[in-house]
Amino acid sequence: MLLVGAIAGWLAGQIVKGYGFGLVGNIVVGIVGAFVAGLILPRIGFGMGGGVLAAIIHATIGAVILLFLLRLVKQA
């Protein structure tokens, strides 16, 4: 899960250009996003099956959402 989160954090940093916490910070956000996405996405019915690629996609979605939320909190 840590490796998937690290990849997802890097991808989320690439998707959300102009905002982030640097490479290490985005990796941490990716790991937390992977955990959050693992809890939330299956409960709302968003499932893509198993496998590493599906895990990376789920974690990236969670990390992007987390980056947007952190941006909103930081601007407030």
C-alpha Rg, in Å?
A: 12 Å
Strand content: under 5%
The helicity comes to over 70%
Which regions contain 5 or more consecutive residues with pLDDT less than 50?
none
Span between termini: 32 Å
- Tell me about the largest β-sheet: none
Number of strands: 0
Structural class designation: mainly alpha
In round numbers, the mean pLDDT is: 80
- Total number of helices: 3
Order of helices and strands: HHH
Dominant shape: globular
User: How many discrete structural domains?
Assistant: 1
Structure, explained:
This protein is mainly alpha-helical. It has one domain. Helix 1 crosses helix 2, helix 1 packs across helix 3 and helix 2 crosses helix 3. It starts with a helix and ends with a helix. The model has no long low-confidence stretch (mean pLDDT 80).
Comma- or semicolon-separated keywords:
single chain; 76 residues; mainly alpha; 3 helices; globular
Question: What's this, in brief?
Answer:
The chain has 76 residues and is mainly α. The chain is built from three helices and no strands.
Helix and strand topology:
Elements: H1 2-15, H2 22-40, H3 52-75
Helix pairs in contact: 1-2, 1-3, 2-3
